[in-house]
């Protein structure tokens, strides 16, 4: 396994590290992004820990290519804000369209370069979806009709079996969000794209644990391990 560190948008104020992890054998491609919103720190910590584990050899990718961008929006992260404008509304909406923010453009250009089979975008949200269908905390979100739906359903069952408190159980939501990384990846790259949302009201250590577990489940399902 080989891990290389690079800098995205290296000549701009949006410069941020990313990691390319090459598995022992050829296989699928997965892109993991986090920190599209700068105040969602647990998801960023989970992504960085995965990169660090790969570098240290604590996590072995047997097959495929894994690209990890732990802190997409460094400027928003430094201020601990969501970001203005909302970066997750600025990704391309049409094949001929362009991103409305240079950072979204850089991320999507990288995605086009690697053509991921899977794109996981790690986030955090308010509220527990078990208690209200109007909130996004503890959900996996994908586009309607996505080929990711069966995998998401299996993964949610696995996760919920390990969570004793039913209020914290995960749910599946299916909807498009034009301008988001998820919908851009699904529409324009035909990737299986999933937004992972943990709930802000939970302890940060618990949110990090859930994010890491979900990513590992996806890696197994996609054949990386």
TrEMBL record:
Q: Which Pfam families match?
A: AstE_AspA_cat
**Alphabetical keyword list:** Hydrolase, Metal-binding, Zinc
Among its keywords, does the record have Metal-binding? yes
Transmembrane ranges?
none
Residues in domain Succinylglutamate desuccinylase/Aspartoacylase catalytic?
A: 26-129
MF term (GO), any? hydrolase activity, acting on ester bonds
Q: What is this protein called?
A: Deacylase
Source organism per entry reads Paenibacillus amylolyticus
